[in-house]
# Entry
Amino acid sequence: MTTFKVVVTGRLPEAVLGELAAAGTLWTPPDGGPLSPEELRAAVPGANAIVSMLHDRIDGAVADAAGPGLRVVANVAVGYDNLDVPALRERGVTATNTPGVLTDATADLAMGLLLSVSRRLGEGERLIRSGRPWRFALDFMLGSQVGGKLLGVVGLGEIGRAVARRARAFGMSVAYTGRRRAAPEVERELDASYLPMPDLLAASDVLTLHCPLTPATRHLIDAAALAAMKPTAYLVNTSRGPVVDEAALVEALKSGVIAGAGLDVFEDEPRVHPGLLDLDNVVLVPHLGSATTETRTAMARLAADNVRAVLSGAPPLTPITG
Ligand code: GLV
Ligand code: GLV
# Structure
């Protein structure tokens, strides 16, 4: 029997590692990762499968370092901007991601950020922990109601739709933009209207980003886009940091161009623009969109199942086809 080499670049739940070990010999980072590009390059020679984390850049050079035995790269994330999919395809390597299993967790977090920034939860927490005196007063720390407001969704894919459903339960109405219009039954279910980007920017009370990071969406939210938003509007980003020009966002938040932002992702993770740290009207969390025990286990298991399928000659469960 052939023994496959499976390189796992980060920590996976023990149970899932056990399942993967049935597929081949595992290599895992001695310190749990993350791997530097050099460490990654050093780990992959002879690999038949790579289970990658979202900050590992897996391109043609990494595939070449792995050698001709490499068959599958299973990204433990739905986003796959870290993979050079065409370069992998050229080398006969299947790439997979983890759609579906993280939809609800990520949508929950987007809703959490939306409520946190509009109701000033981070600011309130900081106030209490600071020990500074406070008292209930009718005009104390007023936020903004979400019910009756318009949620603008950029990218009405699975996660965007899940956020829209939640927002509707909070009394919000929904508009969206995207590369193409959603199916009529999706528009009907969410009572969602399609708007071109400029109109969505101008109309939204909360703009939430659910597009993949591609050359077309890099800095989609730049100074001009922010200037087109309402001064009372909030921006929520649980997609990828570089979709937003972070320096422009700092300026917009400082000068009241928009009212606030809730950010789960950053342009140069784990670095966070220092200008954001000084602002009270931004809620910052460290890339937690899919971070529930249930969801992370399901993501790891799906990646492992993709590896096992491809190594056994079966079709992958969730191939990246784009
Ligand atoms: C997380 O950011 C993911 O793409 O799964
Ligand atoms: C607020 O705490 C209220 O009771 O209205």
Remarks:
- The chain has a mean pLDDT of 97.
- DSSP finds 13 helices and twelve strands in the chain.
- The CA atoms of residues 44 and 66 lie 5 Å apart.
- Residues 293-311 form the longest helix (19 residues).
